[in-house]
Amino acid sequence: MSVFGCEGLHGSCAVKHCSMSAAAFIKRIYEDALMTLEKALVLRTCANNMADHCGLVWPATGAVECKHWQFTRKHENGLVGLLWGAGTSAFLSMHADARWIVCEVALADMIGLEESGMVKFPRAEVVHVGDKSSASHFISTHQADYASTPAPVVANIVLPVAEHVVSHEVFDVALISRADNSGGLLPAATPQSLQTATYGGTLSGENNSRLIAGYGSTETAGNNSDLIAGYGSTGTAGSDSSLVAGYGST
């Protein structure tokens, strides 16, 4: 089988004799990899009556949608929150009676905002409502359910052009959960991280990382990592790593 053999797609064959071109083969791998993580958990807070800053009353469970959705990087005209509960704390209410909401959002619906960890989306499914501790614990214990591997994952939606703005303190559900569970029931660190990016994005990962990026992207990872990138991308990885890239890539 050649370097770009397509066993499992059209039988074992070389690309030059296969109806699927190398370009289509790479595109298929890229799309299949993204499908392994179709949804993610997002954390946000509301007032004790479940109303957000725009007056929308969130349900205790089930679907919620913004009726005035606009595809912009502004907080208005959309639902917002912290992807995987990690990032700036600027938009989380620390009031004692605040309701902490965990919702499930399709990655395809997300827009990365300028603030660290913040994403915007038109619709979501509320899966947990509680306090800071319970919401943090929910995300920490359910992250693995959203990955193709048994290890917990961290997904970063990186959009080109947008600059991340550092504001307020950093919030991380993993830190809250470990503080509440000093008995060691939760893992102290995530063995593998999964990062996804759109076209032209830049991803960096440590050892045991899995990076998936679009065309014209740059990926850098440590040992034992998997990198998948589109055409014209640059990928660098340590020993025992696998790289899959399209034409014009290095």
TrEMBL record:
It comes from the Bacteria. Pfam families: Ice_nucleation. One of its GO terms (cellular component) is cell outer membrane. This is Ice nucleation protein. It comes from Pseudomonas syringae pv. coriandricola.
